[in-house]
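Hello forum,

I keep getting stuck at the same step: I have a sequence, I want structure tokens, and every attempt I make locally crashes halfway through. Rather than fight my setup again tonight, could one of you with a working pipeline run this one for me? It's a single chain of 91 residues.
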Amino acid sequence: MEVFCEGKVMVIDDFRSLTIVEGGSTRNENLSRIDKGHTAEMRAFLDLAQGQEVEALTFADCVASTAATFKVIESMTTGKPVRVPRVAVEG
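Reply #2:
Ran it on my machine without issues. Output:
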């Protein structure tokens, strides 16, 4: 994953290493713990299947995720960076 934001470039390679380029300098870090979220996802599924209450996404979370996804598609289509606005959902 590559992120370009506020004059920085951040690259995560297979959740194993992180490279940050800022102001002409580069910092590399090896990530000691690989966490792609699978364990937490399975734990939440099993908790829910056993009738336990789990933290649910809000409607605002879903709207924000969808808006970000559309902006990613726009950026990929145009080849240019785009701003992802903060989405406020009332109700």
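The two ends are 33 Å apart (CA to CA). If your local run keeps crashing, start a new thread with the error log.
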